[in-house]
Amino acid sequence: MRIAVVGLRSFPSTYSGIERTGEELYPRLIERGHQVTVFGGASSERPRPHSAVRLLRAPSLPFARVETLSRALAALPMITRSRFDVVHLHAVAPAGTAPLFRFAGVPTVATIHGLDARRARWRGAGAAVLRLCERTAVRYAHRMIVVSRELRDYFWATYRRDTTLIYNAIAECSPAVLPARPRSYMVFIGRLVPEKRVIDLIGAFRTIPDDLDLVIAGTGPSDHRAELLHAAGGDRRIRFIGHQGRAAVRSLLAGAVLFASPSELEGFPMAVLEAVAASVPVVVTDIPPHRELFAAIGGDAALVPTGDRAEIAARIRHVLACASEERTAARVLAARVVEVFNVTRMVEETERVLADAAWGIA
Fold first, then answer.
1. Residue closest to 21 by CA, chosen among 72, 92, 78, 91
2. Residue 19 confidence (pLDDT)
3. pLDDT means over runs of 10, the chain (362 residues)
């Protein structure tokens, strides 16, 4: 198949779990004989030598709220002029362009990674546009993929739309080897947006003893980052280090005593998946995607109520106090993650859905 991909801001990954998933998926589809062209934005990293993914830059409006939708619209004529067999749309806003591709005679597969209209950054008109894109995708996309049972149940209950559940996955890899560090640290890795509730993690951390640092890796809107810096109150133990590439993320996880995800909303928590795969003890909030991840691997996690800073702090203290036992348990879960969230399975299942859309539509 000749596959066009729309909805990734960059390739290789520099932004979010969506791009991270694409980085695992598309080179492997190429190895299976397909051609893949990503219509995205600029990347701060050079393509890796093993990757034969073609990256074409599609222009977008310079406003974060309409970036992905405008890029999808800009990619439309570029794609329809070429002979692509199928378009793989990622996320709700790009999926809203499905009828335009359908009318142009190009089959579409929409992968929904989360219910974007529920995110804190979208209010009023923005949320209304995303809900419209969601309804449009349901009606016009030839096939739909979701990344969690929660999303599958939502689309069936709300629209009576069948979707295919395909979990995101990561390849097994050895953790990076770090030099000795003078201080222990815990880590958060992800987008700095309100629904990630990093502000709760900061509030909880500031009650933890002084022999631990909190490393926060990620970027986000400047206004929310300013809010987080204010919440940190000049605490020198709290370090904001911005976006990090894959090698740096592996190093961060390899040296961390703990990974925390205080999020109130997730599609599928890729950062948590990577932390578990790296044998890092985790503290995560009690939300459906986190419960689903740990239920799938048959493991227990320190699930805490969303927004409960006292409980977050208590769970962090527990993990620190029982470090040896927690690390042993984390190694067991790591082996299960690689087995359950298997990259080969993700690639094969996605390939089947793409092929069904490309050649199974009368």
1. 91
2. 81
3. 86 67 91 91 50 74 62 78 91 90 93 80 74 93 95 95 92 52 83 93 92 92 92 93 85 92 89 91 93 85 89 94 90 86 93 94 47
- Collapse the DSSP code of 261 into the 3-class scheme (helix H, G, I; strand E, B; otherwise coil) and give the result: strand
Q: What's this model's pTM, rounded to 2 decimal places?
A: 0.81
| Cis-peptide into 221, omega within 30 deg | no
83 token code pair:
């002979």
Question: Which SS3 state, helix, strand or coil, does residue 9 take?
Answer: coil
Query: 246 in helix, strand or coil?
Result: helix
d(C-alpha 197, C-alpha 202), whole Å: 9
In one letter, which amino acid is 110?
A
Q: Where are the beta strands (DSSP E) in 210-285?
A: 212-217, 238-242, 258-261, 282-285
Where are the domains positioned within the chain? 2-169+342-359, 184-340
Q: Identify whether the C-beta of residue 192 lies closer than 8 Å to the C-beta of residue 218.
A: yes
For every residue of 96-117, DSSP letters joined together read TTHHHHHHTT--EEEEE-S-GG
Q: What is the CATH number of domain 2-169+342-359?
A: 3.40.50.2000
- CATH assignment of 184-340, given 3.40.50.2000, 2.20.140.10, 3.40.190.10, 3.50.50.60? 3.40.50.2000
